[in-house]
């Protein structure tokens, strides 16, 4: 009896300790689970054709959370595309580490966790709109019926259900880019990588697509990395803006955009928006 | 007024103008030749004479009219040209495929491809004939060789025309090589492939006729040289010239029609 009491007496504080420890561990784990993309000292030096070395990117360190909308903003030549291509496993960084949900970019790619959208819609002009969206599903051997249904759902998401049987050349630039987004979402990737997707569009179409992209993002909960050289665009869309500066390409600031969501076009007329735009503009170095 | 302008610039109208102009120029020279030569059909006969020779039922070699003879010989020549054409297409496409799959194949075979194109057909024919020992086979092979080059180079250009982004897309889908080719590369190169087909179709026919002339037998070229040597009326020669011109042009358009049928996406919409 004495022994038991003694045992309880001794073990109680221990139990508490262990529980606390477990709590901290799960907090750390939770934090780690919340991180989708981890960039650690990432650098890229290209060997250019004439034998010279081009430093495109130096020591980029940052974490990107699940479901975050991140912009990579900067003038051309500052390494935005390079950083995006490193994340997408299209090139390997010459220094540093990248982890995508705890695995390497290559493993993430093989698990088809990336959806890619480019500046040009890059549609297959010999395929109809619906067949374009079905393409990635064909690659993964998705059964025909399911393939069609999923593609139609994606098409509905970007508001082009009526154009399923059109060929890309029959669509406007903005519509083509929507199809490109639908295709990128078809495999239900966690991460959407977009390289200046709207920079070839006219201002009216672009503003419309901004609002629609935010809607799609809210519905699908993707992590979006959005490359742009347009300050307003990045402020309107993002949770956080990574400001990249050139010579050499580097991360010169990360700016939180704490504008309320859902955002509509009206937000652009608010003083908060304007203040953020100038804050971002002032954060550039050596442009 | 607008309608008139549209008509004047329509493709059909322009073609008609060209044909009429060609006929006028031809006839002008024919009249000129008629005045200064005793046997104008040896230099340039009237078109009416050529049409007459094709439509008359006068037997030329005892059993056949001119038209029957031309058609019978054309069958032999076009069959050989056709077989050679198909062989050339298949091998040209395959080589382009291997060249796009492997840098080594491309680097080692491209210079020799150029070489083939540089040797004149009439120089190549005796060599091929000596190797195969059979003139019929050589005729097929020559047609194949001439088809091969345009098809191979155009198809390769098609493979290379695929945008970088398309490759990156396939990469992000973790597609395998087979999928990359069947879903992206080959469909993308179809228009280029057809450019090769359209260039080489008349070439295969011309080459067949040319190589026919080297030896006897049955074939348009054989008939052509007999007629030139005076074995039969000179009008047979003119019949063949016009017949092969028409067939050559037709072969080009037939390929164009097949292309349009195979690529519905190029038909639809404007731009
Ligand atoms: N494949 C390459 N080889 C050599 N230099 C490159 C290559 N790709 C990009 N660069 C250089 O790296 C720098 C960053 O390029 P990039 O990432 O495309 O910038 P951005 O997308 O911001 O315009 C530029 O100076 C560019 O010239
Ligand atoms: Mg770029």
Describe the structure concisely.
The complex is a heterodimer of chains A (287) and B (271). Chain A is α/β, with parallel strands linked by helices and 287 residues long. Helices cover 43% and strands 23% of the residues of chain A.
Largest sheet of chain A: 6 strands, mixed
Discrete helix count of chain A: 9
Low-confidence stretches of chain B: none
The total number of structural domains of chain A is 3
Q: Kindly state the number of beta strands of chain B.
A: 0
Biggest interface between chains: A-B, 25 and 22 residues
**Number of helices, counting only DSSP H or I runs of 4 residues or more of chain B:** 11
Portion in helices of chain A: 40-55%
Calculate the mean pLDDT score of chain A and round it.
89
Report the uncertain regions of chain A. Answer: none
End-to-end Cα distance of chain B: 25 Å
What is the annotated CATH architecture of the largest domain in chain B?
Orthogonal Bundle
CATH superfamily of the largest domain in chain A: P-loop containing nucleotide triphosphate hydrolases
Oligomer: heterodimer
The run of helices and strands of chain A is HEEEHEHEHHHEHEHEEH
Counted up, domains of chain B total 2
Helix content of chain B: over 70%
Cα shape of chain A: globular
* Bound molecule kinds, no repeats: adenosine-5'-diphosphate, magnesium ion
Largest sheet of chain B: none
Structure description:
The complex is a heterodimer of chains A (287) and B (271). By secondary structure, chain A is an alpha/beta fold. Chain A folds into three domains: 1-33, no CATH class; 68-90 and 102-113 and 190-287, P-loop containing nucleotide triphosphate hydrolases (Rossmann fold, 3-Layer(aba) Sandwich); 123-188, no CATH class. Chain A contains nine helices and nine strands. Chain A has helices spanning 2-34, 80-87, 105-110, 129-139, 144-157, 173-185, 203-220, 231-237, 271-282, and strands spanning 35-47, 53-65, 69-73, 95-100, 114-117, 191-195, 223-228, 240-245, 250-256. In chain A, strand 8 and strand 9 form a beta hairpin. In chain A, helix 5 (144-157) packs across helix 6 (173-185). Chain B has two domains: 2-35; 56-270, MetI-like fold. In chain B, 32% of the residues are buried. The longest helix of chain B has 36 residues, at 66-101. Chain B is mainly α and 271 residues long. The chains are: A alpha/beta (287), B mainly alpha (271). The structure holds adenosine-5'-diphosphate and magnesium ion. The site of magnesium ion (MG) has 2 residues of chain A, from helix 2.
């Amino acid at each position: 009896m004495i022994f038991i009491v003694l045992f309880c007496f001794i073990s109680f504080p221990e139990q508490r300790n262990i529980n606390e420890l477990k709590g901290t561990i799960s907090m750390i784990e939770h934090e780690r689970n919340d991180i989708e993309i981890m960039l650690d000292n990432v650098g890229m030096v290209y060997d250019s054709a004439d034998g010279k070395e081009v430093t495109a990117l130096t020591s980029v360190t940052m974490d990107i959370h699940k479901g975050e909308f991140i912009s990579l903003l900067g003038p051309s030549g500052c390494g935005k595309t390079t950083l995006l291509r490193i994340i997408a496993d299209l090139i390997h960084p010459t220094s540093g580490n990248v982890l995508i949900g705890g695995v390497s970019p290559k493993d993430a790619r093989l698990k088809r966790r990336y959806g890619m959208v480019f500046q040009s819609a890059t549609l297959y002009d010999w395929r109809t709109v619906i067949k374009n969206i079905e393409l990635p599903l064909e690659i993964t051997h998705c059964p025909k019926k399911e393939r069609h249904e999923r593609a139609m759902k994606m098409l509905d998401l970007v508001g082009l259900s009526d154009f399923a049987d059109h060929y890309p050349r029959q669509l406007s630039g903005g519509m083509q880019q929507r199809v490109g987004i639908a295709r990128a979402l078809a495999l239900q990737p966690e991460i959407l990588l977009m390289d200046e997707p709207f920079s070839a569009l006219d201002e009216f179409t672009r503003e419309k697509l901004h609002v629609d992209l935010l809607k799609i993002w809210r519905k699908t909960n993707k992590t979006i990395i959005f490359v742009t050289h347009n300050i307003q665009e990045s402020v309107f869309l993002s949770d956080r803006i990574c400001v990249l500066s050139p010579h050499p390409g580097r991360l010169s600031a990360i700016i939180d955009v704490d504008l309320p969501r859902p955002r509509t076009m009206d937000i652009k007329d608010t003083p908060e928006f304007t203040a953020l735009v100038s804050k971002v503009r002032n954060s550039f170095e050596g442009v | 007024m607008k309608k008139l302008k549209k008509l004047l610039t329509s493709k059909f109208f322009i073609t008609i103008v060209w044909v009429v102009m060609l006929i006028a120029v031809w006839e002008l020279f024919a009249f000129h030749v008629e005045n200064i030569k005793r046997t104008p059909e040896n230099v340039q006969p009237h078109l009416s004479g050529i049409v007459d020779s094709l439509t008359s039922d006068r037997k030329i070699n005892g059993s056949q009219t001119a038209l029957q003879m031309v058609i019978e010989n054309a069958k032999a020549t076009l069959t050989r040209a056709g077989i050679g054409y198909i062989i050339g297409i298949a091998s040209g496409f395959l080589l382009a495929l291997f060249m796009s799959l492997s840098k080594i194949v491309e680097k080692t075979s491209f210079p020799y491809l150029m070489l083939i194109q540089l040797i004149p057909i009439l120089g190549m024919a005796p060599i091929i004939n000596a190797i195969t020992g059979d003139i019929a086979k050589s005729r097929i092979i020559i047609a194949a060789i001439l088809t091969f080059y345009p098809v191979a180079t155009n198809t390769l250009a098609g493979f290379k025309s695929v945008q970088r982004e398309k490759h990156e897309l396939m990469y992000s889908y973790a597609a395998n090589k087979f999928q990359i080719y069947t879903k992206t590369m080959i469909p993308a190169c179809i228009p280029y492939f057809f450019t090769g087909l359209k260039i080489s179709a008349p070439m295969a026919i011309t080459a067949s006729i040319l190589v026919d002339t080297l030896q006897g037998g049955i074939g348009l070229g054989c008939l052509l040289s007999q007629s030139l040597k005076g074995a039969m009326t000179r009008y047979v020669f003119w019949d063949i010239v016009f017949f092969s011109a028409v067939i050559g042009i037709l072969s080009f358009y037939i390929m164009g029609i097949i292309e349009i049928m195979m690529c519905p996406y190029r038909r639809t919409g404007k731009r």
